[in-house]
Amino acid sequence: MKYFVIKIFISAVILPAMASVLYASETADFNNAVVILLNDSERTQTTLQILQEEVKKRTGIDLKVRKKWSPKDEAVIVLALEQDAKMPQHLMAPLRALPSTQKEGFRIVVRTTPQKLVLVVGHDDRGLLYGVGWLLRKAELRPMRIDIPADMAVSTSPRYPLRGHQLGYRAKTNSYDAWSVAQF
Known about the structure:
Mean pLDDT: 81
Largest sheet: 6 strands, mixed
């Protein structure tokens, strides 16, 4: 019986505490993040709106938005397109270290020193949207908490020119077995 109680204590108290310590060392706290939007097009505004709404829905945190960079900010999320050359040079270096992207691709860099920083740079408008989606999936969003994996660098582009499409043959599909090649 004693062994059983010790085993329950370890699994219920000790292991979760260890896991939270390990997890905390791998993430950065972006609860007080400010979003800097470097491109003011209608599509980038929509991407920003999606980011704000999803974070608000999952955490209750309203992300503040600014157009200008301030070194005083505790945590910053920068949304930009590759064509935007307004970024400070110290931010361009980690982006240049990543492979270049193609149409609908994006690059994301997360740094925790000297300032907490997330750079989401899309090759184009759709690339920025996919980058924000990727960031939302990787971030741990809990009530009043935004934790993003620390010191991360990602560069990705779709392998095929048509993103997210599935061609298949099943009983109920988006294709039809009687189509000719020309109809397809």
